[in-house]
Design a protein that fits this description.
This protein has 121 residues and is of the alpha/beta class. The protein has a single domain (5-120), classed as 3-Layer(aba) Sandwich (Rossmann fold), CATH 3.40.50. It has helices at residues 13-25, 36-45, 62-72, 87-96, 108-120; strands at residues 5-9, 29-33, 50-54, 78-82, 100-103. Helix 2 (36-45) packs parallel to helix 3 (62-72).
Amino acid sequence: MSKIRVLVVDDEGELAHTVVERLGIRGFEADAATSGAEALELVARSRYDVVVLDLKMPGLGGIEVIDRLKEDHPELPVLLVTGHGSVEAAEEGMQAGACCYVMKPVDIEALAKMIKDAVSD
């Protein structure tokens, strides 16, 4: 079975790269993007099984990125990550097409399970 390919998108670069590293330890193949625009470029160039996307980012925010991803890749699961405690914003993300959301700080084991669940749905 091939590894699950994950794109982690967070404007906090150190956090994104840490999540990528920890997912790699757990057998995922992961890349990081530090902006919505970079995420869209990577998805256009490479195949990903799932996107882990921060909700609040400068420039293209999470909701805008979901909207654009769903136009070109409607089958691509998106897991929304928020550190702002806004259930309303997370619900907006779910309405835009995210399959689930998780609050920061992210528990890596819980995230790994959510990724596997999103890909198997």
